Amino acid sequence: QVQLVESGGGLVQAGGSLRLSCAASGRTFSSYTMGWFRQAPGKERQFVATIAWSDGSTYVANSVKGRFTISGDNAKNTVYLQMNSLKPEDTAVYYCAAKIGRDTPGYDYWGQGTQVTVSS
Length: 120
Fold this sequence. Notes:
This protein is mainly beta. The chain is 0% helix and 53% strand. Strands 2, 4, 5, 6, 9, 10 and 11 form a seven-stranded mixed sheet that branches. It has a four-stranded antiparallel sheet with strand order 1-3-8-7, with no helix packed on it. The chain is globular.
């Protein structure tokens, strides 16, 4: 049973930083791809960033490129999302997700989410 547990959300002023963590358990994740998504009230879920455990390659959405960085610690089975220069429009619930492989569509496992609120 795969479990993903996010942490690190909170309230921050515009221009501030937060680091989200996603601790994964229940599998050997070497062949998995991990992703971060977010969903603001009344809006659809939006892709933020992804990292492939197999080679460490990353991809970040254009909307957050240059401000957000995704990274991972294989030894801890933990993925991080470093968020800098936060804006009010970054306010959302942030979800961690996992899928087997890199090019498979959709994600198989989701965390419960962590709230990020950016005040102006």
